[in-house]
Amino acid sequence: MSRAHRFVLLLVLLGINSIDSSNISSCIPNTPCQCYLTQYSFTLLNCSYSLADLPIFNAKNVLNITKIIARNAFNQWPVQLCKYSNIQILDLSGAIFRSSSSSIDFSCLNQLIHLNLSNTQLKQMPKFHPNASRHLQILDLSNNYLRMIDGQQFQIFTNLISLFLQNNPIQSIDHFEHLLNSSTLQSINLHSSSVDLALKQPLTVEQWIDIAHRWSNTTKLFMVRMNHIPFQSIIPTPDQFDRFSTDSMKSILRTLMDSTFLTLFNTPKCDCVPLRTYQRMFSFVDYPKKYSSALFQSVQCLMADGITHARLFDRRTTIDLRCTTLGRKLSLLPSFSSSASTLSYAWIFAIIFCLVLV
Ligand SMILES: *[C@@H]1O[C@H](CO)[C@@H](O)[C@H](O)[C@H]1NC(C)=O
Ligand SMILES: *[C@@H]1O[C@H](CO)[C@@H](O)[C@H](O)[C@H]1NC(C)=O
Ligand SMILES: *[C@@H]1O[C@H](CO)[C@@H](O)[C@H](O)[C@H]1NC(C)=O
Asked: Which residue of 28, 181, 210, 249 is surrounded by the most CB atoms within 10 Å?
């Protein structure tokens, strides 16, 4: 390479950087925005909600733009967004979309892979066109005002991997089974800021059998973050386990091993007989670090004092609850299970009586 060539190359290399930095200035008149422009993307910084629409920097270039980052920039829905119809990565988080919640429409963008609408004052799910939603992998709708989540609305995203819905005042989750049944989804954050969160319908045994079947031969972990709904009221209950194979239960617990289910005010009571069954199922699960997993740590039941929370899958809970040997014997006799506590006393008296005799 000649010296002249090297010099040109150096200029080109420097040029790439200097083009960027020379463009950092108040790039949109009458706004505090700073812009980082490249041929394929732009980032708008420090706009402080001063923008009412997206700028068109270069009319010939709009279709080359695949990435737009503009946090805390907009004070209303940017109508010109549709002109950038090849965007794959779009971050409009922190925008104020309050007045125009129903007009938020992504039907015109059919290349979206990553969409961030966190903290945009959304009251309802934005509109998406089914054909236009098939590439979307990451959807962040956290920190909004969504009250109702319907699993059916997410079925159009056939490649969705991560769904962020935390810090919405969610009160009702409908069709949760559609979210669990998704073949691509790997994580979903449903941490609600409302304490009244509930599933509109509990999953049926048949739905769980379907899900367990789907999960049985994958090694995927499904990370669910949920609060206020006890795990015990989501998964099949011990009295349904006779319609449900141990293998199915194992694959459900295994797949949810990374999940957290937190309950503060509505933690179910610890009860020896179901506790034994849950713990037996958990002990069968083939997963190396299950006793330090998020599921093991987070799923709890409430001790008799009404205050202490204990881990559902932890053997120490059965000891603390004093359902040691008696509980085990009783759990083998399902017909006695409903009167477990009275029977425990009978056993204790019988043992004391025998000891006294000896
Ligand atoms: C832009 O915002 C960043 C922090 O987000 C800050 O460090 C920087 O000083 C701001 N620039 C101007 C010109 O206000
Ligand atoms: C979306 O944007 C917010 C901040 O504006 C950020 O904290 C969050 O991590 C982003 N979400 C994703 C999935 O990148
Ligand atoms: C699961 O495994 C069974 C055979 O054990 C196979 O027939 C089925 O196609 C597999 N399902 C998936 C989703 O891979």
From this structure: 249
Task: Find where tokens 């006393």 sit.
Answer: 345
Q: Which atom of ligand 2 is nearest to the CA of 116?
A: 1
Report how far Cα 138 is from the mean position of its chain's Cα atoms: 11
Distance, in Å, from the CA atom of 263 to the CA atom of 195, rounded to the nearest integer, reads 9
Q: Ligand 2 pocket: which of 47, 68, 72, 91 to mutate (most atoms <8 Å of CB)?
A: 91
Q: Which ligand is nearest to the CA of 210?
A: 3
Give the Cβ contact number of residue 53 at 10 Å.
13
Rounded distance, CA 146 to CA 157, Å? Answer: 19
Q: What is the mean pLDDT of residues 230-247?
A: 92
| Helix runs in the chain, H state only | 3-22, 176-181, 205-216, 246-255, 272-284, 294-298, 315-320, 325-331, 340-357
CA of 217 to the centre of ligand 3 (A): 6
pLDDT score of 197 more than 80? yes
Q: Tell me, in angstroms, the distance from the centre of ligand 3 to residue 216's CA.
A: 8
Centre of ligand 2 from the C-alpha of residue 16, in Å: 28
**Ligand 2 mutation pick, 47, 118, 167, max ligand atoms within 8 A of CB:** 118
Q: Pick from 235, 309, 214, 215: which is nearest to 277 by CA?
A: 235
Q: How far is the CA of 116 from the centre of ligand 2 (A)?
A: 6
Residue partners of 140: CB distance under 8 A and separation at least 6: 93, 115, 116, 117, 118, 164
